[in-house]
Amino acid sequence: MSAAADMHEVPEVPTTRASGRWVKAFRTPGGIVGLILMAIVTTLALLAAFGVGQDPATQEVSDALQGPSASHWLGTDQFGRDIFARVCSGLANSLRVAVVSVTLAAVGGVLLGILAGYYQGVLDRVVGVITNVLFAFPSLLLALALAATLRRSWLTVAIAIAVVYLPIFARVARGPVLTLRHAEYVLAATAVGRSRLSTLFEHVLPNITGILVVQVTLSLSWAILTEAALSFLGFGTPPPAASLGGMVYAAQTLTSVAPWMLYAPGAALILAVVGLNLLGDGLRAALDPRGGNQ
Fold it and tell me: Which alpha helices (DSSP H) does the chain contain, by range?
């Protein structure tokens, strides 16, 4: 190859070799437990999504407040609705809201963060002001205000949560980009004639993927908790759809009579949140470019 051609070669882009570390995330004790818990949660949610088992909205007053039995594995509530079916449906609704909200927050926040960190200037200052304003409000209070303002539905709840978590993704994406924009391979790519936007998405964004994957995993657990809190306060997924937070609220006055009404949705929330957090910790340990073999 000629020397002239060598001058136009872009140096090899260093990567964290994340692809070779995905398996490592599931070899740690925390990663294995998190994967098992999320497999259970996902299976229960899929049962409700595909309509397997009893209808969570069907009321049988004659079966009200029945304890766990062969016909109702987790008992029934005050309206005779099957608790197991409602827990599965509640998990499905929580995961749907969490996935949609985190997807919206990640796409919008990462886009703003990498553009602000790479281009700097006015754009960076504007994004900084927006994130600072959103960070000034407690996350649950901001989500509550947005959910109360919009027409009540699962989608508006997802949008409200997305707005709350958008600045987190913007900050997480912006920080590494500030360092990577001065890396040799990024400067070389620009020097050989590639556009700054092309360099940003081809050489900078892939090198922060590991950080973003971990943030997405942890944000899913926060989104599930936020959705449950909004439902508990009466601003979450509207009835007759099942919601874990709404089930906990309905059970608080009946705990002495039917404790299974509280234990079942509470345990489902714990499984989902702990599973996602353990999974996120496993991914963080596996995808950390400073740990393990490069």
Answer: 3-7, 22-25, 29-49, 83-119, 121-135, 139-149, 154-180, 184-191, 196-199, 209-232, 244-251, 260-287
For 51-87, letters b (16+ CB in 10 Å) and e give: eeebebeeeeeebeebeeeeebbbbbbbebbbbbbbb
For residue 76, what are the β-bridge partners?
82
φ/ψ bin of 101: left (φ > 0), alpha (ψ from -120 to 50), beta (otherwise) = alpha
8 Å CB contact between 229 and 150: no
**Cross-strand partners of 55:** none
Are residues 116 and 170 in contact, defined by beta-carbon separation less than 8 angstroms? yes
Q: Measured between alpha carbons, how far is 151 from 2 in angstroms, rounded to an integer?
A: 65
The closest of 100, 99, 131 to 115, measured between CA atoms, is 131
> How does pLDDT run along the chain (294 residues), one tens digit per residue?
444 444 444 444 444 454 455 566 667 787 889 889 999 999 999 999 888 778 888 888 888 899 898 888 999 999 999 999 999 999 999 999 999 999 999 999 999 999 998 888 899 999 999 999 999 888 888 999 988 888 888 999 999 999 999 999 999 999 888 888 877 777 787 777 777 778 888 888 888 888 898 899 999 999 999 999 999 998 988 888 899 999 999 998 888 899 999 999 999 999 999 999 998 888 877 766 554 444
**Of 25, 40, 30, nearest to 287 (Cα)?**
25
Coil, strand or helix at 254: coil
- By C-alpha distance, which of 189, 213, 192 is closest to 200? 189
CA gap 261, 87 in Å, rounded = 10
CB atoms within 10 A of CB 27: 10
Confidence (pTM): 0.85
